[in-house]
Amino acid sequence: MRHLIDPMDLSVEEIDKLLDLADDIIANKEKYSKVCEGKKLATLFFEPSTRTRLSFEAAMMELGGNVLGFSSADSSSSTKGESVGDTVKVVSCYADIIAMRHPKEGAPFLASLKSDVPIINAGDGGHNHPTQTLTDLLTIRREKGRFSNITIGFCGDLKFGRTVHSLIKALSRYENIHFVMISPEELEIPEYLKEEVFEKKGLSYEQVRTIDEVIERLDILYMTRVQKERFFNEADYIRLKDTYILDMPKLKNAKADLSILHPLPRVNEIAVEVDDDPRACYFRQALNGKYVRMALIMTLLGLEA
């Protein structure tokens, strides 16, 4: 039995195979419409989610399977004091596979030790979000046709953004990628990532303060939200927040084939006017999430079309 807790649980070869399967699902949807007949996915979401939970549910239903679960801790027995381990042990009696989101780092890993069915980490605190990473990788490959030989900029909250951390680790295994980290000083990428990923692996990276100074060099721009609550005082937030809003004037010097990604939800960090630009990939990215989760469910259940 196999679980997916961290994106690094998968080898490069396994990721390539998953993405190939997702591509085939996109091209041949009907072929996969009954693969999970008689199978059930449990979605255990101990914190709120829209895209990730509905994406998992849509993925299982499009494979012909069924879904059960809950969308907040308030509607689970955790309000009575039941442990995560006990919840998962019981739910694994009713479902064939579990997608779990939890506010505490490490909770899905603990669940995997108790579960009798595969566990998929659907996000644990500020730690990992492996299916978002697979979504990002599928989007990059479909938009660029490659992972190597690219310059990718990450913009916004790089300190607390689990999607950023997971994608950096995943991309670190490919060749000739230059990483550009765009953030205020307060939200710089954590030191452990600089040391354990960039410096330990000898990867090429730089840190800058504005989008404008690097936009013309980027092949991919991965936007995230600059969160007001991360600042020590409101004055610093007000001073900096507009620096990290992507609008059409900021794109005037960008490459014609720039790919703009965002894990969503968006607040105001990408102007709505950008949505109609062909370089905006974030809604295609959200759709890709459904297909890559279909591929993952099939893979962990050992199913083929």
Can you offer a commentary on this structure?
With 305 residues, the chain is an alpha/beta fold. The protein contains 10 helices and 9 strands. Helix 4 links the parallel strand 3 and strand 4. Helix 2 crosses helix 10, helix 3 crosses helix 4 and helix 5 packs across helix 6. The chain is globular. The model has no long low-confidence stretch (mean pLDDT 91).
Topology diagram in text:
Layout: H1 12-27, E1 40-45, H2 51-62, E2 66-70, H3 84-91, E3 97-102, H4 107-114, E4 119-124, H5 130-144, E5 150-155, H6 162-171, E6 177-182, H7 191-199, E7 204-208, E8 220-223, H8 234-240, H9 248-251, E9 259-261, H10 282-301
Parallel strand pairs: 1-2, 1-3, 3-4, 5-6, 5-8, 6-7, 8-9
Instruction: Report strand %.
Output: 15-25%
Elements, N to C (H/E)? HEHEHEHEHEHEHEEHHEH
- Count of DSSP strands: 9
Low-pLDDT runs of 5+ residues are none
What percent of residues adopt helix (DSSP H or I)? Answer: 25-40%
**Whole-number average pLDDT?**
91
- How does the major sheet shape up? 5 strands, parallel
Number of helices: 10
Strand order within the widest beta sheet: 7-6-5-8-9
Shape: globular
Sheet/helix structural class: alpha/beta
Radius of gyration: 19 Å
Note the gap between the termini: 20 Å
